[in-house]
């Protein structure tokens, strides 16, 4: 399974129409603006289709994209928790929420929360907890 970083201005297909991501919501909801009608809708991540960043051969695409481990063996609940944590850490790092609010939202204590913050990388997206 290929992974795409969800971020504003990414062109996707939503409900069968070309659209631009305007906002990544907590959980699996994505706000998009349909290109033709300019209508803003919220869709589930499962309803999006992703386009390559430029028209190239599939061989060139695999050379450009780093391979990310397949997440087929990871429970949807784990992916959802990771996405929510990513969103909370992003808000915490930008100063939109306090440490106490972030710890409450992620159901962690201070040490565990800072361990998550240390692993946080906005270019990678949400990381799924290891299954040890």
User: Major beta sheet, specifics?
Assistant: 5 strands, antiparallel
- The chain-level mean pLDDT equals 79
Fraction of residues in helices? 25-40%
**Spatial ordering of strands, largest sheet:** 4-3-2-1-5
SSE topology string: EEEEEHHHH
Question: In the residues, how many domains can be counted?
Answer: 2
Class based on secondary structure composition and strand pairing: alpha+beta
The proportion of strand residues reads: 15-25%
**Form type:** elongated
Count of helix runs: 4
The oligomeric status of these chains comes to single chain
- Number of E-state strands: 5
Taking pLDDT < 50 over at least 5 consecutive residues as the criterion, the unreliable ranges are 128-132
Q: Return Rg in Å.
A: 16 Å
Distance between the termini: 22 Å
Distinctive features:
5 strands, single chain, 33% helix, 20% strand, alpha+beta, 132 residues, 5-stranded antiparallel beta sheet, SH3 type barrels
Characterization of this structure:
The protein is of the alpha+beta class. The chain has helices at residues 58-64, 76-93, 99-106, 110-119, and strands spanning 11-14, 17-24, 29-34, 40-44, 48-50. Strands 4-3-2-1-5 form a five-stranded antiparallel β-sheet, with no helix packed on it.
């Amino acid at each position: 399974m290929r992974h795409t970083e969800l971020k504003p201005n990414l062109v996707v297909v939503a409900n069968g129409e070309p659209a631009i991501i305007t906002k990544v919501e907590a959980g699996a909801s994505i706000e998009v603006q349909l290109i033709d009608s300019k209508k803003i809708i919220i869709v589930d991540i499962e309803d999006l289709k992703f386009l390559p960043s430029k028209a190239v051969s599939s061989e060139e695409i695999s050379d450009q994209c780093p391979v990310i481990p397949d997440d087929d063996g990871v429970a949807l609940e784990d992916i959802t928790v990771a996405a929510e944590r990513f969103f909370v850490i992003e808000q915490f790092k930008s100063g939109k929420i306090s440490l106490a609010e972030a710890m409450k939202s992620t159901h962690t204590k201070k040490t565990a929360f800072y361990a998550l913050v240390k692993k946080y990388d906005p270019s990678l997206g949400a990381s799924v907890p290891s299954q040890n």
